[in-house]
Amino acid sequence: MERLENSTPRQLGYRMPAEWHRHSATLMHWPSNRETWPGDRLGRVEIVYLNILEHLSRYEPVVLIVDPMAIQRAEKKLKERRLESGHIHLIEQPINDVWARDCGPVFVHRKFNGSDDFAITDWGYNAWGEKYPPFDDDKRIPSFLSRKFGIPAYTPGMVLEGGSIEVNGEGLLLTTESVLLNPNRNPGLKKTDIERLLGDYLGVEKVIWLKKGLAGDDTDGHIDDLTRFLNKCTVLTTVSSDSQDINHEALAVNRELLGKVQDLQGNPLNIVELPLPKTKIEGTTVDGSEYVPASYANFYIANGAVLVPLYDKQTDREARNLFSHFFPERDIIGIECADLVWGQGSIHCITQPLYGLDTFLSV
């Protein structure tokens, strides 16, 4: 599909929608990277994937990209769970890993001639500062989907992962300095340059900067493990009341910053707190960390449902209750995610909403 470079999305009235905006589908990548999932870890994370697919595909189509080397295994696993329905669309395409949120297309939306119109923003991707090469196949996913579905695409020329930003769909964007200002992403860009590009390509009017993220988060501190919008003026933020917790201080700093934030009308945000589940694990992850970024903020809002990661019975119930309160019109579905977060991500990290594909995916 053509690349649109003569004008910016903001000039044409585009803006990144909030996640509760109706999706055409959800993008996911089937797990197959043996470095991320060594030994029996692959089989264990496949079970988590199948559980997510079983629930998610009841509410909206899933575009599931599968590496050619894993296609037969994926088809077999889906068949065993009776998940070969028309709501799961397998696409055989080379991929490097599962993190569709970070490397996938970031859509923008506008009303045009009375109808919904969508475009893709194709940001750069370097696997969180070139930590996990190769990543070239994942980097090509937005342009691949742009061509496949005929959706116009913009290339901002800046490295940006989807998990590092969170929007309310009305001009506010949350992010962290530890990621967007990290020299391993965009060493030539200043803070003002980054804010300008977020405005030009995502329609953002105000960037809310928090500081840093969770221990064990190899992304350097993605916002989707910390603070998320529950509606246009309410945020869920992660806290720890235990002063000895490794994450206590960083979360307290972020919470204090949020308390000073005003929306575009000058009103304070409504802030809802949720505790962290247990983040220290027995042994270590594949990169040697004793901690995983387990957080309820890594939920995913689907059409008619909210998928909530579960980790710890002591705090899972509180999380479920909170989401039930804020999303009474959606089913709240808990998914056990200990085996997924071992790979240092959770439900939000492996899902990316897709828009403007209804005619392609109708069943």
3D structure, described in words:
The structure is a single chain. The two termini are 24 Å apart. With 363 residues, the chain is α/β, with parallel strands linked by helices. It has a single domain (10-361), classed as L-arginine/glycine Amidinotransferase, Chain A. It has a 4-stranded mixed beta sheet. It has 12 helices and 16 strands.
Low-confidence stretches: none
β-strand percent reads 15-25%
Number of helices in the DSSP assignment: 12
Q: Could you give a short account of the major beta sheet?
A: 4 strands, mixed
CATH architecture: 5-stranded Propeller
Might you state the CATH topology name?
Answer: L-arginine/glycine Amidinotransferase, Chain A
Mean pLDDT comes to 95
Q: So what's the CATH class?
A: Alpha Beta
* H and E order: EHEHEHEEHHHEEEHHEEEHEEEHEHEH
How many distinct folded domains? Answer: 1
Structural class: alpha/beta
How many beta-strand runs?
16
Question: What radius of gyration results from the CA coordinates?
Answer: 19 Å
Give the overall silhouette.
globular
Give me the side-by-side strand order of the main sheet: 3-2-1-16
Gap between N and C termini, in Å?
Answer: 24 Å
CATH superfamily: L-arginine/glycine Amidinotransferase, Chain A
The portion of residues assigned to helices is 25-40%
